[in-house]
Amino acid sequence: xxxxxxxxxxxxxxxxxxxxxKWFAVGGSPDRDTLRDLPTLRARSRDLLRNAPLALGAxxxxxxxxxxxxxxxxxxxxxxxxxxxxxxAATWQRKTQxxxxxxxxxxxxxxxxxKLDFYQAQAVAFRGALESGDIFVxxxxxxxxxxxxxLKVQLIESDxxxxxxxxADVEGGFKAGVMQDEAGRAxxxxxxxxxxxxxxxxxxxxxxxxxxxxTGRRNxxxxxxxxxxxxxxxxxxxxxxxEALKQLGRYTEAExxxxxxxxxxxxxxxxxxxxxxxxxxxxxFAGQPGTGDGGDEMALGYGAVGFLGPGEKASVVNPGRxxxxxxxxxxSILTQVGVALQLPLEVxxxxxxxxxxxxxxxxxxxxxxxxxxxxWISSEFCQxxxxxxxxxxxxxxxxxxxxxxxxxxxxxxxSQAEWLGDGPGSLDPLKEVTAAVMKVDxxxxxxxxxxxALDGSxxxxxxxxxxxxxKLRRSLGLVIPATVPIAGAAPSAPADNAx
Length: 499
Description:
By secondary structure, this protein is α+β, with helices and mostly antiparallel strands. It is built from 15 helices and 11 strands.
């Protein structure tokens, strides 16, 4: 019967079909669909990361590609809105960048636990959000000896955000440790003093206001992917593929064990004399009596020879390993897993056996996803931390920003910044550089953007360093090498080798 005849507009909603009769889907709210399952999802996600290489590889690929050595600050203030000349704005940006590095690269001054600097904290925060679904960042104030900034950063694992005294969720109150107002804006967070999975007694909770009552300053950053309107807590990155990865792990273990058993081929020799030594008949078997390595338990040995008694015969079982269909089947499942995780198969398993074009297409597709993730962690973690630091730097007088606290528009103009990270790399550097040069020469891009895309470095720092190198070469009387011509690019001026 067609969907039209039985009155159903969509086949997917037709309950008369045999394939759809036992499919009972409930349209729950974001809280109903997620909060009850989150503890189990987190625990299973972490178990996969401890014991499933593919799951760990997917998370590591994200962290390495998105964060890498860390996203660095590049202030880009709106100098026109602030009435500043470009040179004046460039000077302000360089001074602010240097001042920020002085704070964020010192573990004792940046981290409340004095264990991480800013770049390491990015990786931990991003990994925690992927692994557990979300992570919290507290911004306490503690001025320490030798420091000039009291702002500190504290990373809080998702499990510690839970209802006080482990009470049930209450409508209008705490749900999964978060209290929201009627508009859905977070008001308070409840953090357990110790991790709920720790072996400690005397648990207590601290209630933290999401925003300062007088200043409106963000006291807590809640980092998670907002998948649905009304989402209160995040879902682990591996949640849609937990079962697939677990079953694939079991299948891999079974195939591995079958291959090991197949490799332990044992030869049995039937003896014709009845008076053979029973102890000698056990030679060649692992776990033979009296050896102290297993008692009476018998096991297959590597290239072992076993003696059988009269009338006994041995039956050889061929497990048929290695299984020729193992690799195609695993790749088929991983292709589906990769689609859910937005990682092409080649990137997921780190195996590029196809053509240059296919491999490059896989890398570009993955890089699109990594760029979105990089923008996400920049806006959720890097930028808010920088803005909190900048407010303290301006209020203490270490950074001059007239009108910063008087006008929100001026504060917004001063707070603009880019976050530059490692480049995607290239399969063929010559082709990549040639394309970059052609785009710049034809006004389709600029040196700053192409430098960041190529290796994530700062074009200004590169030019300054290159200028110093050229100056040193001239002072030593060395010849400055001519620029290597690139096919298709505009001809460059000859090198100036004058003293």
